[in-house]
Amino acid sequence: MIQASQIREHMEVVGSDGGHVGKVDHVKGGDIELAKLDLGAGLKHHLIPLSWVDRVQDEKVCLNLTKDAAKSAWREVH
User: Fold this and answer.
1) Residue 53 sits in a domain of what CATH number?
2) Is 57 exposed, middle or buried, given 0-12, 13-18 or 19+ CB atoms closer than 10 A?
């Protein structure tokens, strides 16, 4: 199980296919909030659950689903 303390601001978040999902703004409860101005995340904050994280490696947060699957299932925050 990944600990929230392993994830830091500005780390890149990538899908299991290596695709760019976004950059970490911060960890909020059991979710990672992605930076809203990152090209991968668009102009709104998006939340992804920590349960999607497979591992933290080489300063990247690696998910257990693809970039497209993550983007279709993340939650928007205004």
Assistant:
1) 2.30.30.240
2) exposed
